[in-house]
Amino acid sequence: MTQITTENPSVTTAPLSALDRCDSCGAQAYVRATLATGELLFCAHHAARFKENLAGTALAWHDESSRLLDERGA
Ligand SMILES: [Zn+2]
User: Fold this and answer.
1) Ligand 1 centre from 10 Cα, in Å?
2) CA of 24 to the centre of ligand 1 (A)
3) Which of 16, 26, 47, 60 supports an S-S bond with 20, CB 3.0-4.6 Å?
Protein backbone atom coordinates (compact mmCIF):
# COMPACT_ATOMS: atom_id res chain seq x y z
CA MET A 1 0.00 0.00 0.00
CA THR A 2 1.25 3.46 -0.86
CA GLN A 3 0.76 6.16 1.71
CA ILE A 4 -0.14 9.57 0.36
CA THR A 5 1.62 12.42 2.13
CA THR A 6 1.60 16.13 1.49
CA GLU A 7 4.49 16.76 3.86
CA ASN A 8 7.29 15.31 1.77
CA PRO A 9 10.10 17.92 1.86
CA SER A 10 11.17 17.09 -1.71
CA VAL A 11 7.78 18.03 -3.14
CA THR A 12 7.70 21.24 -5.13
CA THR A 13 5.04 23.64 -3.94
CA ALA A 14 5.91 26.68 -6.03
CA PRO A 15 2.91 28.20 -7.78
CA LEU A 16 2.30 27.25 -11.38
CA SER A 17 2.88 29.92 -14.00
CA ALA A 18 1.58 30.62 -17.48
CA LEU A 19 4.72 28.90 -18.78
CA ASP A 20 3.72 25.58 -17.21
CA ARG A 21 1.95 23.45 -19.78
CA CYS A 22 -0.22 20.35 -19.59
CA ASP A 23 1.83 17.25 -20.45
CA SER A 24 -1.14 15.80 -22.31
CA CYS A 25 -2.42 18.65 -24.48
CA GLY A 26 -0.15 21.69 -24.03
CA ALA A 27 -2.80 23.93 -22.49
CA GLN A 28 -1.86 26.05 -19.49
CA ALA A 29 -1.28 23.78 -16.48
CA TYR A 30 -3.24 24.28 -13.28
CA VAL A 31 -2.31 21.04 -11.52
CA ARG A 32 1.10 19.57 -10.63
CA ALA A 33 1.16 15.90 -9.72
CA THR A 34 4.38 14.87 -7.95
CA LEU A 35 5.19 11.20 -8.43
CA ALA A 36 8.12 9.12 -7.20
CA THR A 37 9.41 9.21 -10.78
CA GLY A 38 9.01 12.95 -11.35
CA GLU A 39 6.40 15.62 -11.89
CA LEU A 40 3.49 15.79 -14.28
CA LEU A 41 1.59 18.93 -15.19
CA PHE A 42 -2.04 18.94 -16.20
CA CYS A 43 -4.65 21.41 -17.34
CA ALA A 44 -7.87 21.36 -15.32
CA HIS A 45 -9.46 19.04 -17.88
CA HIS A 46 -6.71 16.40 -17.82
CA ALA A 47 -6.21 16.71 -14.07
CA ALA A 48 -9.81 15.66 -13.55
CA ARG A 49 -9.32 12.84 -16.02
CA PHE A 50 -6.12 11.40 -14.50
CA LYS A 51 -6.64 12.21 -10.85
CA GLU A 52 -8.32 8.92 -10.05
CA ASN A 53 -5.51 6.90 -11.67
CA LEU A 54 -2.72 8.88 -10.02
CA ALA A 55 -4.24 9.36 -6.58
CA GLY A 56 -2.83 6.05 -5.37
CA THR A 57 0.78 6.80 -6.35
CA ALA A 58 1.10 10.59 -6.31
CA LEU A 59 3.26 12.04 -3.51
CA ALA A 60 1.45 15.36 -3.85
CA TRP A 61 -1.39 16.84 -5.84
CA HIS A 62 -1.00 20.60 -6.22
CA ASP A 63 -4.26 21.94 -7.62
CA GLU A 64 -4.66 25.56 -8.69
CA SER A 65 -7.67 24.97 -10.92
CA SER A 66 -9.75 27.24 -8.66
CA ARG A 67 -7.74 30.13 -10.19
CA LEU A 68 -9.60 29.53 -13.42
CA LEU A 69 -12.71 30.92 -11.78
CA ASP A 70 -10.83 33.93 -10.39
CA GLU A 71 -9.28 34.83 -13.73
CA ARG A 72 -12.56 34.56 -15.56
CA GLY A 73 -13.99 37.31 -13.38
CA ALA A 74 -10.89 39.54 -13.51
ZN1 LIG B 1 -4.56 18.96 -20.91
Assistant:
1) 25
2) 5
3) 16
